[in-house]
Amino acid sequence: MNENKKDIVQITERIDILRKNKDNLDIDKRYTQTTGVAYGFNIAIELISGVITGGAIGYVLDEILGLGRLFLVFMVILGGVAGLVNVVRYLNKTTQENTKE
Length: 101
Hints:
Shape: elongated
Number of domains: 1
Structural class: mainly alpha
Strand content: under 5%
Number of helices: 5
Mean pLDDT: 83
Radius of gyration: 26 Å
Number of strands: 0
Distance between the termini: 51 Å
């Protein structure tokens, strides 16, 4: 029983030390910073996902309606445009977040 009290006292002392040094750790800042590589991956994923989704929808419509590859081409182009719009939104959002700091 006495050992448990010592352990609890040690843990509370450690917690107090961590609370005092909390400002020096900058944990929140370290995990919220985004690197250029992350921006690049997000942009690439937005573009690729738009084209793939548009292509898949176009392919399914072509198979159902039997119109050759008309919808496939149209939806790939439309997916690319949607991907570009998403990239512009993403860049505007990140620019606004970075200018607030």
